[in-house]
């Protein structure tokens, strides 16, 4: 916000130092928001619905910072002109014309008044002029100490505040965030699932359509969706996690708002023969028949993909771990 008063001495210096630091740090915050969106780093910490608002907010902050920078630059110029501008002293000169017919009582002025009287000036003068020592219009000495207007800032506090605001920028500069959850953290989220030990026969084959973890997990709790998806051939891409020789699970992560509320989405994969050659955490593509199997001792269903041929399990390039 622009100020409509003048700054003097150290107060002006402190004021402009604070303004410049604020412009720099807030501008850096806006730039980080834009760069994180461009670099895809927001994908690691925010759900898709919140990423565009971060970009828009970053651009808006940069615009406000640019406007404020121009205002401070103009204010600095005005302050410089005020400090070095000319000083004006008023001296009043009265010149009386030839028809001057006014009477002069005692003139009490704070300034020198040389009078020039015309030949026809018919007026009485009481020349008891009170001069500088007896001025009625006395000039009051002004105490300019109040001109600080509260801008005698403690720069130590200003720098401390800027360091706090700069902390997110510093994290970005050192490359944070640079990855998702660690393997140990993901293992804790996945938990220990028991093997289903279900035999699979008469597995459907075909081209298949791409499936999502969300759709399969939602269908596990909805009978109509289970009927719609059950028996179809589908393709699913996720990260590999072994449970047994003929059983593993694919998983991806789901983020509702931010990384703090992340939960894993899991689908069980069943095969006729032992699966080898895959490491935990690898990205694989699986094609098979969609089924829903009740968990042992529970009424809850699990989404399952039954694979007819091990050739339908292939490594694939990594995707975003969040679906």
Automatic annotation (TrEMBL):
Residues 78-150 are annotated as: Disordered. Keywords: Membrane, Transmembrane, Transmembrane helix. Residues 109-150 have a biased composition (Basic and acidic residues). InterPro entries: DUF1980_C. The chain crosses the membrane at residues 20-38, 50-71, 155-175. Residues 242-315 form the DUF1980 domain. This is DUF1980 domain-containing protein. It comes from Urbifossiella limnaea.
């Amino acid at each position: 916000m622009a100020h409509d008063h003048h700054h003097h001495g150290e107060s002006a210096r402190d004021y402009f130092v604070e303004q410049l630091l604020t412009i720099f740090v807030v501008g850096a915050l806006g730039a980080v928001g834009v760069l994180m969106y461009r670099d895809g780093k927001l994908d690691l910490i925010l759900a898709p619905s919140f990423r565009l608002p971060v970009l828009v907010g970053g651009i808006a902050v940069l615009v406000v910072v640019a406007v404020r920078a121009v205002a401070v630059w103009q204010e600095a110029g005005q302050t410089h002109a005020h400090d070095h501008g000319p000083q004006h002293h008023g001296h009043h000169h009265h010149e009386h014309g030839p028809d001057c017919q006014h009477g002069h009582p005692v003139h009490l002025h704070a300034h020198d008044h040389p009078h020039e009287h015309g030949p026809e000036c018919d007026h009485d003068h009481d020349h008891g002029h009170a001069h500088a020592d007896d001025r009625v219009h006395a000039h009051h000495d002004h105490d300019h100490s109040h001109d600080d207007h509260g801008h005698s800032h403690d720069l130590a506090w200003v720098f401390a505040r800027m360091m706090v605001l700069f902390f997110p920028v510093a994290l970005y500069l050192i490359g944070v965030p640079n990855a998702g959850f660690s393997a140990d953290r993901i293992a804790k989220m996945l938990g220990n699932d028991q093997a289903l030990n279900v035999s699979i026969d008469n597995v459907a084959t075909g081209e298949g359509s791409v499936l999502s973890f969300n759709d399969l997990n939602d269908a596990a709790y909805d009978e109509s969706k289970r009927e719609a998806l059950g028996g179809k051939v589908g393709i699913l891409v996720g990260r590999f996690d072994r449970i047994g020789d003929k059983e593993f699970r694919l998983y991806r992560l789901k983020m509702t708002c931010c990384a703090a509320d992340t939960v894993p989405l899991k689908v069980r994969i069943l095969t006729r023969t032992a699966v080898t050659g895959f490491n935990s955490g690898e990205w694989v593509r699986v094609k098979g028949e969609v089924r829903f199997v009740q968990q042992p001792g529970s009424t809850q269903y699990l989404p399952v993909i039954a694979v007819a041929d091990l050739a339908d399990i292939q490594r694939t390039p990594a995707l975003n771990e969040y679906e």
